[in-house]
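User: Teach me something about this protein's shape.
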Amino acid sequence: MDMNTFKILAIGLVAGFSGAAIFFLFGPQAPLQTSQTIQLPRVAANDVAQASLVSNETYKGPAQEYSALPSFAQAAQTSVGAVVHVRTAMRTRIPLNPWYEMLGYRSPEEVHQGSGSGVIIGNEGFIVTNNHVIEGAEEITVSMNDNRTYIAEVIGTDPSTDLAMLKISADFPLPFIEFGNSDQVGIGDWVLAVGNPFDLTSTVTAGIVSAKARNINLLRARPDRGVFPIESFIQTDAAVNPGNSGGALVNTRGELIGINTAIASRTGSYAGYSFAVPSTIVEKVAQDLMRYGKVQRAYLGIQIEPVTEVIAEQLDMTEIKGCAVTDLVPGSGAAESGLEIGDVVLAIDGQEISDFPELQESVSRFHPGDEVMVRVWRNGEEREILVQLKDRNGRLAIKKQDRSNSFDLTSS
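Assistant: First, the predicted structure itself:
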């Protein structure tokens, strides 16, 4: 092979390798790792009416009729205008070095601000909210959905249920929410939470009632201040966040069935469940605060424990339900009416009782002096006993006729 031939071969090899290198570097590249897009299940166009959960039609299953989900638009429109934004301010002094104070320097003030929600329950301007929203506040302002702002006064508070009553004055009738009956709310019912989470005004979220008569040990007893917690919360999975406190829980008709109060969370924000004071408690507390400035609370005068399988078997009960009486408070309505230790409370004025929160909720709607029919299990049979309720000190603080002129809150 002569020199010219060698040069030609060398140039060809170099050109070939160069072209391959250029193609490798600049040509189309195959991905190092491929990812596959997972397709969602598809439904044929002519099957959409049967598959859609928001269809307007009602279709029949094998055993019963199933209705499509209702629209929440009317309930939201009814309630949004009556749910207000509550803002609070409280001034505190910043502690200084004691030497500065000895020299006459005054501690500077610091303003702490907070916010929550409230619900207008009458066109006269009465607003119900949570006690923890306004506790300690020196100034309370209320903003309406249309951006009008009012200074609010505190009518009364009830730490035992974490409720409070405010009042604003307007020159015209205000929108308000009508009370619904939380007793008629069932597990699985749709509900809306309306409030002002994270200072986002007029926010509506939807969920279902997950449980009723929940006691989550949220409220702290303060016997020295007459605070004895009453917890019988409605549990929902409607999204509730800081700022929703004091806002409305409404049914699909836009009726108030609860006041949103707490969330179950490890982060401080919504994590799955929220809790509302039921309207049966809210309405009674609101009436008392508007009329008396404080709640007139009745007590049955018993100590109880929940009925277990062992207790039910010992008492020959056919069902495991109710609250077994373990002690009677001397001088109470229960003690004077003939209730006995060992009785099992099954119902109060027709309201079935299965545990302590339900017992608390049922009794909390009455006033001292009211008479209630208590159904109990005794000696293998049911019997009814008429009990006149008293306050915690054994007094008949209010008689029925004294409440004839109480405020008329609209209730369904």
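Now, about its shape. The CA atoms of residues 298 and 367 lie 5 Å apart. The chain has three domains: 74-167, 182-292, 302-396. If you'd like, I can walk through any region in more detail.
User: That's plenty for now, thanks!
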